[in-house]
């Protein structure tokens, strides 16, 4: 009987241990471990609403970008419609008369024929007074100003320019070079042209531009009867 009682007690104790472990395991399964990240997110305060100042800055930036895009499109469309072409200039004739070089001082008269070509079909050109000069080895020796004029579309205009050198002082080296070239029958010189111009498109006149033209070398003939080699010109805006 004592052994049976001991066995019953041991059986009851074992049964209680098994029941305790089963209950503990079930509790562990039903109980979830809290996620620290979720707890942090749930505990974080909501983001602050943007201030009126930041909204205003964003609107200004968007408006500026939109204006830049619209301006670029307007320029592109205008260019595609007008299709502007470069103005073309050339010296068709150049001669010198009354050439007198004495004591390193020059007196001479230069006659130039300047060809101005406007190839644009939608733009005419308004010229303010045109400054024309003749230079030798970087030194200007004659100068004159031509009258303003209007050049129509797809037009070629020829300008007669007479430039007079009056007692122009030269260095000894320049004087010697000019005498040598005079004997050869022509003098290699630079012709420079400067003018303020405005383009007219339809009824609209655009803003002024300063046009600088350089023609070099121009072989100025000592006699107008000799054949002249036309000289092309470079433009600089």
Question: Would you mind describing this structure in some detail?
Answer:
By secondary structure, the protein is of the alpha+beta class. It folds into three domains: 30 residues; 32 residues; 149 residues. Helices cover 34% and strands 44% of the residues. It contains four helices and eleven strands, in the order αααβββββββαββββ. Strands 1, 2, 3, 4, 5, 6, 7, 8, 9, 10 and 11 form an eleven-stranded antiparallel beta sheet that branches. The N terminus is likely disordered.
Q: How many DSSP-defined strands?
A: 11
The residue-averaged pLDDT reads: 83
Number of helical stretches of at least 4 residues: 4
**Helix-strand string:** HHHEEEEEEEHEEEE
Rg, nearest Å: 47 Å
In one word, what is the shape?
Answer: elongated
Helix content: 25-40%
N-C termini distance: 127 Å
Structural class: alpha+beta
Number of domains: 3
Low-confidence stretches: 1-21, 23-30
| Relative strand content | 35-45%
Major β-sheet annotation = 11 strands, antiparallel
């Amino acid at each position: 009987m004592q052994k049976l009682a001991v066995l019953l007690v041991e059986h009851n104790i074992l049964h209680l241990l098994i029941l305790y472990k089963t209950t503990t395991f079930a509790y562990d399964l039903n109980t979830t471990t809290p996620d620290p990240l979720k707890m942090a997110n749930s505990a974080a305060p909501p983001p602050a609403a943007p201030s009126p100042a930041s909204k205003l800055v964003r609107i200004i930036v968007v408006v500026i970008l939109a204006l830049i895009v619209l301006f670029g499109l307007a320029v592109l469309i205008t260019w595609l419609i007008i299709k502007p072409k470069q103005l073309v200039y050339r010296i068709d004739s150049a001669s010198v008369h009354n050439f007198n070089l004495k004591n390193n001082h020059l007196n001479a008269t230069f006659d130039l024929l300047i060809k101005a070509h406007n190839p644009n079909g939608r733009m005419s050109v308004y010229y303010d007074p045109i400054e024309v000069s003749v230079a030798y080895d970087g030194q200007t020796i004659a100068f004159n100003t031509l009258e303003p004029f209007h050049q129509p579309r797809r037009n070629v205009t020829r300008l007669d320019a007479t430039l007079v050198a009056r007692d122009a002082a030269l260095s000894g080296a320049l004087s010697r070079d000019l005498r040598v070239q005079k004997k050869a029958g022509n003098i290699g010189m630079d012709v420079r042209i400067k003018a303020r111009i405005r383009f007219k498109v339809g009824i609209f006149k655009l803003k002024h531009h300063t046009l600088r033209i350089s023609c070099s070398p121009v072989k100025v003939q000592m006699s107008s009867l000799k054949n002249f080699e036309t000289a092309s010109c470079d433009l600089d805006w």
